[in-house]
Amino acid sequence: MRACVPLIVAMLCGLAWADLYSAPTSCHGRCREAFDKHRPCHCNARCQEFGNCCEDFESLCGDHEGFSHSSDAITKEELQSTSEKIYRADTNKARKEDIVLNSQNCISSSETRDRVDRCPEPLFTYVNEKLFSKPTYAAFINLLNNYQRVTGHGEHFSAQQLAEQDTFLREIMKTAVMKELYSFLHHQNRYSSEQEFMDDLKNMWFGLYSRGNEEGDSSGFEHVFSGEVKKGKVTGFHNWIRFYLQEKEGLVDYYSHIYDGPWDSYPDVLAMQFSWDGYYKEVGTAFIGSSPEFEFALYSLCFIARPGKMCQLSLGGHPLAIHTYTWDKSTYGNGKKYIATAYVVSSAQ
Questions:
Q1: What is the pLDDT of residues 35-44, one digit of tens each?
Q2: What is the four-CA torsion angle of 322, 323, 328, 330, rounded to 10 degrees?
Q3: Residue 62 neighbours by CB under 8 Å, 6+ apart
Q4: Exactly one of 28, 223, 257, 323 is catalytic; which is it?
Q5: Catalytic residue of the set 42, 93, 238, 323
Q6: Locate the EndoU domain: which residues (predicted)?
Q7: C-alpha distances in angstroms, 55 versus 36, 41, 136, 188, 236?
Q8: To the nearest 10°, the Cα dihedral for 311, 105, 317, 13?
């Protein structure tokens, strides 16, 4: 797979994808700026008072301690080494013959707001659905429809839905991917037992936080993997399995892409534009062909090691960055920690 020319040029010029695209709706480089009525969201000192801050205001402009201190900080080299081990351990990933992708038209970053469907065919021509019978895939898929996608509506889970969360965590912890992650974090003195690690993952990903006025209307898992709609736009939705299943049902319409990663096997990375049941996603990055445990492991690693920051990894010898976001209006750690959301930012040849 090859990256589109516009993004390759940007990466060679030293620009991260967040710099290239996210500025209008991000606080990156805008903390404490003067109020500008033409901005879609704000990063000034009073935006919280008026409820119009950009979503990443807290993580980029707030005063947070994070989880790493100088005495036990995880280095960039350790992150890259561990991500390579996780990459090699993902035996549940799709094989090349398991997925036939039809990426079609590649557009420039300046065209992402046009909302024009430039791809007449679906993104996925074929997926070997035998993948979905694997325990981690099946447990993951059971979770996807447990949420109300529109923010502002509180989430309430049945006993069965709570049990499905536990089943998913149990299944992924059986895999070499998650054992590799736990081994690294245990060695770093972050967790003393697998049970402690699992308990923290449950709170980290399934603990509820508030995106709007309603208490507990979102979670890291819902945002990243299932997807949400906020103010008429798609937020999150960074998972290829969810995309495929929704496209198969006719609920997702693939429009175009602006980036196709350098990997010649799965997992790969695609940054795309699409409509989800009438709601538009301007740029959505997702791994393609990865196992659920692989994504869960990398996002968790970055959230623990680089909360609210850019996390530089390496997969198959290619660099990749993941940005995590913290959210302090949550049930995670009784307000002592922050809830996880994350997405793939960029990769470069």
A1: 888 888 888 8
A2: -40
A3: 328
A4: 223
A5: 238
A6: 75-348
A7: 17, 8, 31, 31, 12
A8: -60
Q: Is 281 annotated as catalytic?
A: yes
Q: How many CB atoms neighbour CB 129 within 10 A?
A: 12
Question: How many residues in total does the chain contain?
Answer: 349
Q: Is the peptide bond before 120 cis (omega within 30 degrees of 0)?
A: no
* The CA-based dihedral angle spanning residues 208, 247, 285, 82, taken in that order and rounded to the nearest 10 degrees: 70
Q: What pTM, to 2 d.p., does this model score? A: 0.78
Q: Is 202 a catalytic residue?
A: no
Using one digit for the tens of pLDDT, what is the confidence trace for 145-183? 877 766 556 666 789 888 999 999 999 999 999 999 999
Query: Is 223 marked active-site?
Result: yes
